[in-house]
């Protein structure tokens, strides 16, 4: 009886401890007192955090911590060893981007946690709190009991308080990031890539992502229960998903928080949480537009492989160079010029040479011809995700491009998820994920080696974008979602809502090489693209990238000289950006100001529904006339029945005017606002 009594008393004591409410041990407000972050410890010493907005909870108590492969986990038995706060406010200039100047204004809270059961083990958690979001990361000090850190998984949680819906793509599946977005109740999310975009019942919008993903595994989000999401790190062949040596910091776990969808896009949280430019003077990279030997291969009219259909031959390359020079495009992308595309290149990529062209392609002659025409070739390195093979040739391949004046390279990693071939420390090939720690290291290796040679990188089948373009401004764009090629051969093709989803999901990470401008609106076998021709123009303003492709065939642009004029006119670099309206997956309207003139550009697009939107032109300079060159859907336009119906017209406008946009189903509108002189009396 005495034994049973003691057992019962022990169980009750344990239950009391487990259920003991968490106590807030530290807190901090954002500079404008919009957001408040609290740090908690419960009766078991489990650390957590909360977020409130204007005093109302939006993230409930959410756990922090780690599971290690070879050491007791960081989960409980912590006490607060110290805390400190600070403030920071600066405005920094982007060498290129959506806007020229970015304000970085936050309050910081640093808490030091001491593990009482494992003496001398400590962990710091740092929170940076902005008015429009929160970033937090873990900092591992060097300590005798945890010098080599082998992380199996994180215990980081995000417990969303309000009932909510979410836009997300599945993580851990075969096709990397290239899925259509799902829109479900948040409570039905399974496992997702970030950014995950959430709309609460009150209308509040939250996007969960990460910033500064360096030498670490990407964070997925797995739903635990209800609306509680937990970090899940991308797998590794080595068991432990992250292997680091202390001291080190993790990537920032981020929450962008805004009243509406447009506020999410306008947040600079992701950029601000990255370190400043490490490359120094990067004036050698200038944003540009380009054409290339690309769409014809997706149409199947030419091939990457050698033979009678080989697209990357000298004569065809010169044809594209002539087209680029005539129409003001700086770059020409040439895919399939190098040996290795014959046979099953997708299987292993071991046949690729990154320095040897096919016999029908004279690389030096083509680059010389381009230089004489004022055009730059864009190099191409498809690796089939065999990075062991690629890294062995990387230096020679980049040196070749540097000698020839090729100052941008599109890299590719076509392979199923989990199919990356990497050379391990044991000298053997291991299979890794596109977004694991190995690929985090690989991409930065490529980017920094390219930077040494003044070469910019555009990565396809990449690791996701987490704002590293601030630190490494030669990492100018990447793919990381379903692009235009799915409209050539995809089953299904991208639906009309796709781009309105991308703006408020994938694009929160950074620029995307979406490759717009297919004015023919036709893919393989006559497959119809679910877009009007006006929407293809609007994409140049809506889907941001400092490199923008005119993806269609030259002969198709000759068929549509009116719409093609907008593609020739629209810039690829901006001094200011405004989101004028928008709802995730439904519609959006942008205004962007050219960095090299006083002109503004407006782009608006919709999903499968026709819309009438009114936008005020109050972003224009006061007292100045503008000539609005308008490219709009005709009254009878429809992506399905009449996609090429477009009206091109001009009229004078000025600040304060209201422009009515009538968007057809699957449609859009593009406007160039050319600044004229000051009006009299202004």
Key words describing this protein structure:
alpha+beta; eight-stranded antiparallel beta sheet; 38 strands; 19% helix
Describe this structure in words.
There is one protein chain. With 682 residues, the protein is of the alpha+beta class. Helices cover 19% and strands 37% of the residues. It contains 14 helices and 38 strands. Strands 6, 7, 8, 9, 12, 13, 15, 16, 20 and 21 form a 10-stranded antiparallel β-sheet that branches. A hairpin with a 5-residue loop joins β7 and β8 (121-130). α8 runs parallel beside α9 (437-452) and α12 (533-542) packs parallel to α14. The chain is globular and about 75 Å long. Residues 1-19 have low confidence and may be disordered.
Task: Characterize this entry briefly.
The protein has 682 residues and is of the alpha+beta class.
Low-confidence stretches: 1-19
Number of strands: 38
Average pLDDT works out at 95
Beta percentage is: 35-45%
N-to-C terminal Cα separation, in Å?
95 Å
Largest sheet, described in full? Answer: 10 strands, antiparallel
């Amino acid at each position: 009886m005495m034994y049973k009594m003691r057992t019962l008393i022990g169980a009750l004591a344990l239950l009391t401890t487990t259920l003991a409410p968490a106590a807030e041990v530290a807190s901090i407000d954002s500079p404008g007192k919009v957001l408040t972050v609290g740090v908690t410890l419960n009766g078991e010493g489990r650390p957590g955090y909360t977020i409130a907005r204007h005093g109302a909870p939006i993230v409930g108590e959410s756990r922090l911590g780690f599971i290690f492969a070879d050491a007791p986990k960081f989960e409980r038995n912590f006490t607060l060893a110290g805390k400190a706060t600070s403030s920071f406010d600066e405005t920094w200039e982007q060498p290129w981007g959506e806007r020229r100047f970015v304000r970085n204004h936050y309050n910081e809270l640093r808490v030091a946690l001491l593990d009482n059961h494992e003496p001398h083990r400590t962990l710091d958690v740092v929170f940076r709190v902005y008015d429009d979001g929160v970033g937090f990361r873990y900092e591992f000090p060097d300590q005798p009991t945890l010098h080599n850190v082998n992380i199996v998984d994180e215990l980081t949680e995000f417990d969303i308080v309000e009932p909510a819906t979410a836009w997300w793509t599945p993580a851990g599946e075969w096709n990397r990031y290239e899925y259509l977005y799902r829109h479900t109740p948040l409570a039905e999310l399974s496992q997702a890539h970030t950014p995950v975009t959430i709309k609460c019942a009150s209308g509040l919008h939250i996007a969960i992502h990460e910033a500064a993903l360096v030498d670490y595994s990407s964070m997925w989000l797995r739903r635990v229960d209800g609306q509680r999401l937990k970090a899940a790190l991308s797998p590794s062949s080595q068991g432990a998903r992250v292997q680091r040596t202390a001291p080190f910091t993790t990537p920032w776990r981020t929450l962008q928080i805004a009243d509406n969808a447009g506020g999410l896009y306008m947040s600079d949280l992701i950029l601000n949480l990255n370190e400043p430019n490490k490359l120094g003077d990067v004036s050698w990279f200038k944003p540009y537009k380009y054409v290339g030997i690309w769409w014809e291969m997706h149409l199947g009219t030419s091939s990457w492989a050698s033979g009678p259909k080989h697209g990357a031959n000298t004569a065809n390359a010169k044809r594209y160079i002539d087209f680029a020079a005539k129409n003001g495009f700086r770059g020409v992308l040439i895919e399939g010029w190098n040996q290795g595309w014959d046979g099953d290149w997708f299987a292993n990529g071991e046949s690729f040479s990154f320095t040897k062209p096919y016999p029908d392609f004279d690389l030096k002659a083509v680059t010389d011809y381009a230089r004489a025409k004022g055009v730059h070739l864009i190099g191409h390195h498809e690796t089939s995700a065999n990075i062991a093979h690629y890294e062995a040739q990387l230096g020679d391949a980049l040196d070749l491009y540097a000698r020839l004046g090729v100052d941008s390279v599109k890299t590719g990693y076509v392979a199923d998820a989990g199919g990356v071939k990497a050379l391990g420390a044991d000298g053997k090939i291991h299979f890794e994920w596109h977004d694991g720690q190995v690929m985090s290291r690989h991409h930065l290796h490529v980017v920094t080696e390219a930077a040494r040679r003044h070469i910019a990188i555009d990565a396809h089948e990449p690791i996701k974008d987490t704002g590293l373009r601030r630190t490494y401004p030669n990492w100018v764009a990447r793919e990381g979602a379903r692009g235009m090629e799915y409209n050539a051969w995809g089953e299904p093709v991208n639906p009309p809502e796709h781009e309105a989803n991308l703006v408020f999901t994938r694009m929160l990470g950074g620029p995307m090489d979406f490759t717009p401008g297919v004015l023919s609106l036709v893919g393989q076998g006559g497959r119809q693209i679910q877009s009007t021709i006006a929407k293809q123009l609007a994409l140049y303003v809506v889907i941001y990238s400092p490199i923008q492709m005119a993806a269609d065939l030259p002969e198709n642009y000759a068929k549509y000289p009116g719409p093609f004029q907008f593609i020739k006119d629209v810039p690829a670099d901006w001094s200011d950006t405004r989101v004028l309206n928008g709802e995730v997956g439904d519609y959006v309207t942008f205004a962007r100001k050219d960095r090299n003139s006083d002109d503004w550009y407006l782009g608006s697009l919709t999903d499968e529904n026709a819309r009438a939107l009114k936008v005020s032109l109050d972003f224009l300079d006061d007292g100045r006339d503008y000539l609005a060159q308008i490219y709009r859907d005709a009254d009878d336009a429809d992506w399905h029945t009449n996609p090429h119906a477009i009206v091109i017209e001009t009229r004078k406008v000025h600040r304060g005017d209201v422009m009515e946009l009538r968007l057809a189903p699957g449609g859009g509108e593009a406007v160039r606002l050319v600044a004229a002189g000051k009006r009299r009396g202004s």
